[in-house]
Amino acid sequence: MQIARGAIDKALITWLLMIGCLLGGLWGFATIGRLEDPAFTIKNAIVLTQYPGASAEEVAREVSEPLESAIQQMAEIDTITSSNKPGVSRIDVEIESTYDGTELPQIWDKLRNRVNDAQGDLPDGAGPSIVNDTFGDVFGIFYAVTAPGFTDAETHALAEFLRRELLAVEGVADVEVSGLPEEAVFVEPEPAITANLGIPPAAIVNAIANANVVTPAGSIDQNGQSIRIAPPVGSDTVEQIQNLTVGVQGEVVDLTDIARVYRGRADDPDRIIRFDGEEAFTIGVSGKSDLNIVDIGKAADARIDQLMSDIPYGVEFKPIYQQHEVVEESSNEFLVNLATSVAIVAVVLALFMGWRAAIVVGTTLLLTVVGTVFFMAVFGIELQRISLGALIIAMGMLVDNAIVVAEGMQGDMAEGKSSREAASDVAGKTQIPLLGATVIGIMAFAGIGLSPDATGEFLFSLFAVIGISLLLSWVLAITATPLLGHYFFKRGGTEAGSAYNGPIFRAYAAVLRVALRLRWLVVAGLIALTVVCYWGFGQVKQQFFPDSNTPLFYVHYTLPQGADIRRTASDMEVLEDWLAEQDEVVSVATFVGGGATRFMLTYAPEESLPTYGHLIIRTETLEQIPPLRARLEDFGATALPQGEFRSERLAFGPGGGAPVAVRFSGSDPDVLRALADEARARMEEASDDVQNLRTDWRQRELVVRPLYAENRAQTAGIAREDVATALASATDGTRAGVYRENDRLIPIVVRDPAAASGGGAHLIDQPVWSEPAGTFVPLEQIIDGFGYDVEDTLFQRRNRVPTIAVEADVPAGVNANAVFTEVRGTIEAMALPEGYSMAWGGEYESSAEAQQSLGRQLPLSLLVMVLISILLFGKLRQPLIIWLLVPMAVNGVAIGLLSTGLPFSFTALLGLLSLSGMLIKNGIVLVEEIDLTRADGVPFREAVVRASTSRLRPVVLAAGTTILGMTPLLTDAFFASMAVTIMGGLGFASVLTLIAAPVLYVIFFPRAWRADAPTKTA
């Protein structure tokens, strides 16, 4: 097919293609969606069930077990884990990664049906269970709102107003508010009065509950029209609750005469949030997945600016995380890097091939990139971290096709051929090999992008963008490049072959001839070097995902089990005060009782615990984090020794887990704790780099237990439930109903006046109502005092089996994989009792799962690549020569990573895949050129040297432009290790292509080599 010649003859069509790529790319840049990470479905749901009064073990046995048993019957389930606390069951359901986002709604419906069917198996007082399938929603526009001087009711009204207005912004999918002050209406009966009047606690509770219940009042028919009867309006103010009456033995008593009624904050709120030490609540905004988050963020910011005129003075919005600004900044940085890379390519080509070739190849490269963006916009592929990475990876391969065609045309035209003849000759020889090599380069990523699991979903845009860009680069290389060469390349009259008579070409030819004579020595040297480099590669630090380049880091602080949230909040103030004095700190967001709203895809909020405190700290620059973090850890260990203090860098990949973790599963909690203690001791002994060793069961907690005197209590007509009710009233209180304030439901709590003061000294004097006797009985008469016990209050299960995890952090700058290697042997050597098992978690598990996912798909794509290379040649020896080069590509990677000290991360793995594609492409073109030169009748030895020499400039220029084009990425935290992988690997791969490939070619054709041996003269 004379495609290249036709591109010149039908120039109008080629110009339309080029203009279409250019204008389409400009349209694509203007309209394409922009995200921080690929739209990715987190396949997790949470099932929450209340079981007031039960211990953690009872919750696990009586609530979590029947629910997990029902859920486990679903074929779609991957893992079920449950966290059981006193009175609360939380079950995390993880779906198999092979199910995509479109299938999840039906799966969640199935999950709800299973959970609803299991409600009948739950004990009285438990449930109903709530299924939360929005756990994975990301609220990337995340603000703290401070409203000093506002009452709690005004703060709630403000939050509702803001949520309602932001939901109306175009493109906003949801708005989540967190950290609002928790209020209650407290009713505190005077014990002396109620005892004298004989008023049972249930009478007060029932009076409050019935006064505010919504009950239908029916309807009447009048003149053929049905008229609804509205029920009487219930209590809607604190004063009206005070005016309620309580019926006692035929008499009516005013509530205000026997109890104090007031409105106040809950003593133990679920969540406390502060920003820079000031009380705040947070608003998180999520955008619709198919829209541009930059536009949505700007629209939300504009709406907030408009609302400020309607909001009372003093209310301030403090940004915690602004995804739209991060995305816009990264997109702009990419454009700068892209422009820099194209400019570098043009400069290098201008220096070594002349300005004409620079214009031809540079224009083709630019058209390929903008054309790729056009197709991305058409197919709905957003600009995000992975697709931008794909464009950068592809940059190393896009220039190859154009350079091969341009260099060949320029050489032929310099020898006197017309542009059409040169285009026809060069493209005729190279278009099929280039197409095959391009498809092989694409297939190197097919195993990732076409994987049916979560890895494939997350990285599909990588495969798609590389596929689009490489195919487009081939199309433009055989159409646009010949046409531009027709306009720019000069037709000369030099002798054939003189284009390769320069000193560099002659020097290379001389070196190659020596290498061919010493071919077995060259092969031995390459094998030895490869062995050494593979050993060196084993010394390269391993890392799953690098740290983020956003100047944020976290603090996790956990008090021993049993501490209340107020104490945790007080300790966090110590850290806030210290951070306020540090010049490099821009802001500090404090979350007590749980983690923040999921503000980025890779952020995993911690489970809600009153003992947990969390800081999100922003600095001015990324470089300020390590020294600040070190000083903060020293201060935290000194100032807060009573708690567990640790800090964590914001990472690009999935977070929320410990770097090193091991799990033990079995039936007996005591045995599991003993195994965990042994594992902790072994880890500490095996490595000096394990920090903050802990278990996810935390510490056992002290429990006060009344010693029920059964005989005396039954004589008094008092059951165990009556004692529990009396103690609840004397401490936390009993919920009697709700107080309606617009759309808010504020709980009404009946409790003893002494409950607010805390402590337990008053409990022994607490009166207990005896229904049969119709009177109060002192608690001390029906119990034999109080006993003390310890019990597990955080009981973890995994796939219905009690499981304890030992977790450890590593120091900043220390590689987690290296620490894991140090502790692995001693942990795996532990003797486990029969019926108990051990499994690794942490970064090792995440990395192993990702690599296992890749391993399942790569063999198929590898097979396709091999078949394509065989079909290209129709022979076996030539593809074998090329594939023998691939294992040696690691040599340059090891040298590059060891010399820079960078780890081999997940992005470096992607760079290695792209490197293999580049190496195979260069090998195919060179070996094909040798075959074609031999076919023209050139003697074997001369054909090998001449063909290799003709490929010197394309190989070196393609490698040089790619290596230099990667230099802007060396300062990018996410792409640095990938850039070094490609730069080091490609530099060595060029040597492999130009020296090793011809040497292996000669070795694989010994007869032809011997047949062409020079004749000995007598």
TrEMBL record:
UniProtKB keywords: Membrane, Transmembrane, Transmembrane helix
Keyword Plastid carried by entry: no
A Pfam family reported for this protein in Swiss-Prot or TrEMBL: ACR_tran
This protein's name: Cobalt-zinc-cadmium resistance protein CzcA
Superkingdom, taxonomy of origin: Bacteria
GO CC annotation, single: plasma membrane
PANTHER family from the UniProt entry: CATION EFFLUX SYSTEM PROTEIN (PTHR32063:SF18), PTHR32063
Gene Ontology MF terms in the entry: xenobiotic transmembrane transporter activity
